[in-house]
């Protein structure tokens, strides 16, 4: 049986770029867009062309260089914006103009200072204008979830009549609850004339941590496009995380039987590339792409994992492009995991030696929390050379207390090949070659913001 297809609309380069500290230059946007193409997203929202010359150029260059995905340019509901977006999209194989206008009373009254009648007229006119230029037109009633439902139905009906092909329902302020958001999609499908001719889209913000849940609720009620971003970046608390939406539908296809075109093995590399470009690290416990997402530390978990990964793993690291499941060696680790890691490092031990290594390992782990391979190698060398034991054998030696003294283990690996002098710190998942970000790093402020919750 064919599963319904859900269009993945990536807005990392537009909504995502609006995150504090996530701005990207044209070259970086182009590089990320090429990765999004490899990832297989259907639509790339490349920017907001009238917002700046840089945005215009980014949309233009991405439109000219990628042939498979649809390239969208954002525009407010006015002629100048729509025309500028169209100009930027000239080279696109599949252009889309994305027009938006706020529809909630609070936005109409305080931000736009226009009446509902004027709003309706402006939405209709802008979509008509866009349609006269481009066959593929998306309309977003901004702050839809706080808009009077009857008025929202009226606006959606008007823009469909004016030629919109996708209607996006933004939870702009991240206020909705999943059931509520699902009901709104259901209501639109029941009440709006012509709704069956268009694709309904979700665009949910994460202010209450519900962006992914709301997006999925929308899909269950008939939305067939999800707007989302890599690592969930976006305004304020961010947008729905692309990797979470995609993997939720893949892992739980029994409950969410929908297809997407996303190639799972490119999820982790995409996340890493974004972190590298913006230098905004992924939170360690971030679902799917955080460096702890596939790490197992508790001894009983590690033991289970080694016997059969299904004991604690609902998807394989490989399915999302993480090279290998990684057992973090910490003080809760057992002998079994330690012996395996030693083996992977090329050392096999008799029971007696392993006991000694384990004893020292536990003392060390108590002190530095996470034992890196380099630590383990030194420890192995100490035991092998028969050096006198003083506790963990590391007194006054080079084990950095680093990670343990920071509120979060901000371990990063150093990526090669970035020649812009920014030294390219990237969150690594390998647990290898870690260094700590110095407090002098000029992105410290930005990190405080992002790591503050
Ligand atoms: Zn948004």
Structural description of this entry:
Helices cover 40% and strands 12% of the residues. The protein is built from 16 helices and eleven strands. Helix 2 links the parallel strand 2 (43-47) and strand 3. Helix 7 runs parallel beside helix 8 and helix 8 packs across helix 9 (242-251). By secondary structure, the chain is α/β, with parallel strands linked by helices. The protein has helices at residues 26-39, 53-65, 79-88, 105-112, 116-133, 149-161, 178-191, 211-220, 242-251, 267-278, 299-307, 335-344, 351-368, 373-384, 402-405, 444-451; strands at residues 7-10, 43-47, 70-76, 95-102, 137-142, 166-171, 199-204, 225-228, 411-414, 425-426, 435-436. The protein starts with 6 loop residues before the first strand and ends with a helix. The structure holds zinc ion (ZN). Zinc ion binds at residues 15, 203, 205, 234-235, 239.
Topology:
Layout: E1 7-10, H1 26-39, E2 43-47, H2 53-65, E3 70-76, H3 79-88, E4 95-102, H4 105-112, H5 116-133, E5 137-142, H6 149-161, E6 166-171, H7 178-191, E7 199-204, H8 211-220, E8 225-228, H9 242-251, H10 267-278, H11 299-307, H12 335-344, H13 351-368, H14 373-384, H15 402-405, E9 411-414, E10 425-426, E11 435-436, H16 444-451
